[in-house]
Amino acid sequence: MPELPEVETVRRGLVDTIVGRRIDGVAVTGMRTVRRTSAEAVYDGLMGTTPVAVRRRGKYLTVELDSGYHVMIHLRMSGQLLWVPADADEPVHTHVAVTFGGKPARRLLFVDPRTFGEVVVYDPADVAAEIPELHRLGVDPIADVFDRPVLAAILRHRSRRMKPLLLDQHLIAGIGNIYADEILHRAGVHPEAISSRLSPSSVTRLHEAIGTILATAVEHRGSTLADARYVDLFGAPGAYRERHRVYGRAGERCLTCGRGVIRRLTETGRATAYCPVCQRRPFKPQRSRAARVESREPTPPPTRGA
Ligand SMILES: [Zn+2]
């Protein structure tokens, strides 16, 4: 699924292409893509308008129109936005096609084989009712103020394992499975470490890692995996995948320490890759019941003259 760096790459492409160009044509053919409203609502909301700004919060793109309405686009698992010549053939699984005026005219296609993605035209005053999950998103580490105290407050007030905490879009928006693993590895934090128990130096390292990993991934235009599902607006893959240090590298020797072998954890529901040397467990494993019972037995008195 595209995460913050991939969606940010698409956003920057949209700023360079659609802003200031009038929408002259709209074709909605995929009903699941517009399931939250209707084909008519998307058609009526877009036709004749001109995008004036493109923003991103977490994995959500929002396009502001000169009509005052906004468009929310979420790519979910397999969605792509492609900027193509007006006469280009549509790829299969094209669900929304928007024609922009200008010379030459171009089209923006929303292509989505698995159809989890969405396009919604909405009144920003009603966002809480129309797109509640967008309204409730947590802090965006690139678009918002995200200094160390902001992160420390998120961690301190919760006793949660770090991997699921980083994936919780209501706390920090935009991080998914790839970047959560890369961030925890760079910070040297075990994916099962408990957020409220992180040391101040771990919080500092984690804050640095979130900023550095996400900024570097944006610089390299995101990660295109073997399935090639993510491409930018012009159909080009991102180059960050070859810089992954743990994601997709289970069984390989760690590139950072040269000693650990990357392991996979699946108990949190999502596969997690980490290096047992760089990311030591910050807590002792629970002792077994037998071990606890044994330790309660009275210690024999010291033998005299031993
Ligand atoms: Zn390592």
Main β-sheet, spatial strand arrangement: 1-6-7-5
Which consecutive residue ranges, at least 5 long each, have pLDDT under 50? 286-300
Instruction: Give the second-level CATH assignment, the architecture of the largest domain.
Output: Alpha-Beta Barrel
Please identify the structural class as seen in this structure. alpha+beta
Layout of SSEs?
Layout: H1 4-17, E1 23-28, H2 39-46, E2 51-57, E3 60-65, E4 70-74, E5 80-85, E6 94-100, E7 106-111, E8 118-122, H3 127-130, H4 132-135, H5 148-156, H6 162-167, H7 177-187, H8 200-219, E9 263-265, E10 272-274, H9 289-296
Antiparallel strand pairs: 1-6, 2-3, 3-4, 4-8, 5-7, 6-7, 9-10
Bound molecules: zinc ion (ZN).
The site of zinc ion (ZN) has 7 residues, from loops.
Explain what this protein looks like in three dimensions:
The chain starts with a helix and ends in a 10-residue tail after the last helix. Helices cover 27% and strands 18% of the residues. 40% of the residues are buried. The strands form 3 sheets. Strands 1-6-7-5 form a 4-stranded antiparallel sheet. The protein has a 4-stranded antiparallel sheet with strand order 2-3-4-8. It has 306 residues and is α+β, with helices and mostly antiparallel strands. It has 2 domains: 4-135, MutM-like, N-terminal (N-terminal domain of MutM-like DNA repair proteins), CATH 3.20.190; 148-274, Helicase, Ruva Protein, domain 3. Helix 1 runs parallel beside helix 8 and helix 5 packs across helix 8. It has helices at residues 4-17, 39-46, 127-130, 132-135, 148-156, 162-167, 177-187, 200-219, 289-296; strands spanning 23-28, 51-57, 60-65, 70-74, 80-85, 94-100, 106-111, 118-122, 263-265, 272-274. Residues 286-300 have low confidence and may be disordered. It binds zinc ion. The site of zinc ion has 7 residues, from loops.
